[in-house]
Amino acid sequence: xxxxxxxxxxxxxxxxxxxxxxxxxxxxxxxxxxxxxxxxxxxxxxxxxxxxxxxxxxxxxxxxxxxx
Length: 68
Description:
The chain is mainly α. It has helices spanning 2-6, 20-42, 49-67. It contains 3 helices and no strands.
């Protein structure tokens, strides 16, 4: 058995990626966030100062959620 193990240069352990349904939900949410951010960026052209503050805050919140 030791001889057989010696044939391998490196042993590794790969953790299970988790629930595929949950992963799909997270990917869909990330896509929704990207779309919402893109929509907010499109509104920058016609935004006034107050609207820009709202857009900036919302984009920060969405970006934080996406990163987590």
